[in-house]
Amino acid sequence: MENFVFQNPTRIIFGKGTENQVGSELKGYKKVLLHYGGGSIKKSGLYERVVKSLREAGVDFIELGGVKPNPSLDLVHEGVRMCREQGVDMILAVGGGSAIDSAKAIAMGALYDGDVWDFFVQKGDCQAALPVSTILTIAAAGSESSDSTVISRAEGQMKRGYSSKHIYPKFSILNPELTETLPAYQHACGIADMTAHLLERYFTQARQTDLSDRLIEATLKTIQVYGPRVIADLSDYEARAEIMWAGCLAHNNLFGMGRIGDWASHNIEHEISAIYDVAHGAGLAVVFPAWLKYNHKVDLQRFVQFAVRVWDVDYAFGEPERIALEGIERQKRFFKNLGLPVSLADMNVNDQHLDAMASKAVMFGPIGQFKKLNKEDVHNILKLAL
Q: Is 70 in contact with 280 (CB distance < 8 Å)?
C-alpha cells in the first residue's frame, strides 16, 4: 500500500426534497452565480424550487445557463467575466457533471490573472478558487465531491482535465428524485462513467491494497444489481439512490487511497468526445473494454481477481487467461445490455482520426500508470475498439 493523505471537505446532503435547503445553506454569501445547463431544470420544476429557496433566504444571485455536455471554454470565460464584474463569492451549479465542471473552471478563472485554460494545458497551477456548491441531477461523473474538472475547447478540438484541492465543492445536495425525469440512455451513460472511475483505480501496480480492492468490488457489484433496475424502471427511487451514492463514492478519492490509479482510458475517451461530441459515458463504455483486453497480460492475476470477484467467473472456467478474458467480456456485455455502444462503429466513429487522437492523447508524454502507453499503444487500443 502506497503512502497517502485523505481529506474530502465536501459536505453531502442526501435524500428527498433536500434541494429546498439550498437557500439556508448559502446564507451569508454576498452574491451567488446560479450556473446550469439547458431547459431540463426548468421543465422539471427544479429551477423554480431553487430560486424560491434562494429568495426566501435572502440570497442575492445572478444566472448563467447554457452548459452543454462536454462543457465549453467559451462559456467558462463568460462566467469568469460575470463573477469578476458582479462580485460573485459563491457558484451554485445545478445539473450534472458538465454544469459542475464548468462551475469549477469558472471558480478557478475568477481568481486567476491569466486564462483559466492555462491550468488545463500545464501552463499554470491553481492557487485559489471561489467556493462552489452543487445540486446534482444525474448520477455519473462524481464531480459533486471530487477535486477535478474537465473542459473542452473548440479550437484544436481539445478536451482536458485538471485537479486541485481548491475546487472540492463546499457542499453537494444529492436527491435521487431529481434523476427521475432523465432518459434511460443518460442513466446508462452515467453508470458507465462511475464504473470507469472505479476501474481506473482498481487496475493498479500498487501492492497489498486488499481493503480498497474489496470496497471497489463491492461498489461494482452494487452497480451490477441496481444499474439495470434504474434502466428498467425510472421511478424506482431505491435503485436510483443506490446508484447516486455509488457514483459519488466512486470519485471522491476514498477508493484511490494507497493505490496509484491509471486514467489512460479517460484520456483516450476525451480525444474521441472532443472530435465527435459523444457522451462521455458512452465513449468510456467503448474504450474501457478495449483497454482491458490490450492490457490484461500486464498483471494477469489482477484480471483474474476482477473476473472472479466482480463477475463471478468460476476458477473452473479454464486457464487464468481464459478467466481474465471472460471477465472482460462480461463487463462489455453489461454495458451493451444497458443500451450503450461497445465499439466505435456503434457510435458512427470510423478510423479516420485514430492517428490524430492517439497523438493528442500523449501530447504531454505517455499516459496511464498500470502500463505507460505511448502513441502506438493508444492507436492499438483505438483499433481494438473499432
A: yes
Domains and CATH numbers, the chain: 11-178 (3.40.50.1970), 183-385 (1.20.1090.10)
Q: What phi, psi does 17 have (nearest 5°)? A: 70, 5
Q: 386: which 3 cell numbers?
A: 473499432
Closest CA to 335 of 283, 287, 285, 289: 285
Is the pTM here over 0.70, yes or no? Answer: yes
Read off the pLDDT of residues 70-96 as tens digits, 9 standing for 90 and up.
Answer: 999 999 999 999 999 999 999 999 999
Helices and strands (DSSP H and E) totals, the chain:
15, 8
How confident is the model over 209-257, as pLDDT tens digits? 999 999 999 999 999 999 999 999 989 999 999 999 999 999 999 999 9
DSSP 223-246: HHHHHHHHHH-TT-HHHHHHHHHH
Helix axes 320-337, 280-295, angle to 10 degrees: 170
For every residue of 13-70, DSSP letters joined together read EESTTGGGGHHHHTTT-S-EEEEE-SSHHHHTTHHHHHHHHHHHTT--EEEE----SS
- For 153, phi then psi, to 5°, come to -120, 125
* 329-335-337 Cα angle (round to 5): 100
CB 35 within 8 A of CB 93: yes
Cβ atoms within 10 Å of 85's Cβ, excluding its own: 9
